[in-house]
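Section 5: illustrative case.
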């Protein structure tokens, strides 16, 4: 194999050993379980936007560039169920074969191989010297992560030889990728979630100061915010647990998911949740509680339970409230990693009843005034 003329220093890639920076969920490898599943996290790089996403991955380009004309591109590829150690060499051989077919020369350089946080990682550069000598070379920087549920690839491409600062940017992108289990993206504020992305502010804010469409949700007594942020796919989430618990070790959890810009999502969301429980529980039940309309928005409340045949395994009981907004879709979960008492069930349902969506632009869905 020939070597490319780009060399990434060990100092830069030392960051791999420290894990990724930031939290942002891209896509799951397979259906997540009742408590979550293995996911690839990748923050959207500064100056980039998502132009395509599906269950197989995400494609991101710099603002102002298009799929037909770009100078930089970041893509992820998700291969759910591909867990064989043979998949990496087969995948890399395929990439090299494509490059050799399309390029006058396609040297490749291995940067790093080894375990990072218990998962096998491979990082390499694939260079393409075009057959047209007037065209600058392309560089593809690839990171392959072999997970327990599937294989995950992050590719950062540039259609020119990157400078030192651009190379550092590519390195940061690759380093920011991380495969995690039971991790989800998050929300900025548990009380009033920001309106859908790129929406202009309302002409007249309410007395509460809220503009546009907002989720109104209080922090449960005795709880704390344990995780919050926004995913690479544009979904916001917050996780709240009791003061003395964590997202890795909890008995109760409140999870808020805001699918920004996504509407008419209820049927698909509920079906996906039912599938996740069914795939990961010996006994999975779904019980509808209530459907209706509040403050001008349709809502749905239901309960899902997960029990295992092993009596020592703790059950998981989750109450859902889905609100269909006009700008986004909103879901709040109140979960118990135990068999809740009657009082706890009553409290969970009352908590969900208090959650609303408002819109400062709509007389039918007014936002509350400051008390």
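Designed sequence:
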């Amino acid at each position: 194999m020939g070597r490319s003329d780009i060399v990434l220093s060990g100092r830069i890639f030392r960051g791999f050993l420290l894990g990724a920076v930031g939290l942002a969920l891209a896509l799951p490898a397979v259906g997540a379980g009742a408590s979550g599943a293995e996911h690839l996290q990748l923050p959207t790089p500064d100056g980039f936007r998502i132009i395509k996403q599906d269950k197989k991955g995400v494609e991101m380009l710099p603002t102002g560039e298009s799929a037909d004309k770009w100078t930089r591109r970041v893509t992820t590829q998700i291969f759910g169920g591909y867990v064989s150690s043979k998949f990496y060499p087969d995948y890399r051989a395929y990439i090299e074969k494509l490059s050799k077919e399309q390029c006058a020369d396609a040297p490749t350089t291995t940067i790093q191989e080894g375990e990072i946080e218990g998962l096998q990682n491979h990082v390499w550069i694939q260079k393409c010297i075009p057959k047209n000598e007037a065209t600058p070379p392309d560089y593809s920087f690839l990171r392959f992560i072999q997970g327990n549920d599937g294989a995950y690839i992050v590719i950062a491409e540039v259609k020119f030889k990157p400078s030192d600062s651009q190379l550092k940017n590519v390195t940061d992108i690759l380093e920011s990728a991380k495969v995690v289990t039971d991790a989800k993206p998050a929300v900025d504020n548990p009380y009033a979630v920001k309106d859908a992305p790129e929406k202009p502010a309302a002409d007249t804010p309410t007395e509460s100061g809220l503009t546009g469409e907002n989720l109104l949700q209080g922090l449960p007594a005795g709880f704390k915010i344990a995780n919050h942020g926004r995913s690479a796919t544009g979904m916001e989430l917050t996780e709240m647990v009791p003061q003395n618990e964590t997202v890795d070790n909890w008995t109760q959890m409140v999870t808020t998911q805001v699918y920004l810009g996504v509407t008419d999502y209820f049927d698909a969301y509920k079906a996906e949740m039912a599938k996740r429980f069914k795939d990961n529980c010996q006994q999975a039940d779904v019980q509808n509680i209530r459907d209706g309309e509040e403050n001008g928005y349709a809502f749905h409340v239901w309960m899902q339970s997960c029990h295992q045949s092993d009596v020592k395994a703790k059950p998981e009981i989750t109450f859902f409230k889905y609100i269909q907004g006009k700008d986004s879709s909103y879901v709040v979960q109140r979960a118990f990693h135990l068999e809740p008492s009657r009082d706890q069930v009553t409290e969970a349902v009352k908590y969900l009843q208090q959650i609303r969506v408002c819109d400062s632009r709509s007389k039918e869905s007014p936002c509350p005034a400051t008390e």
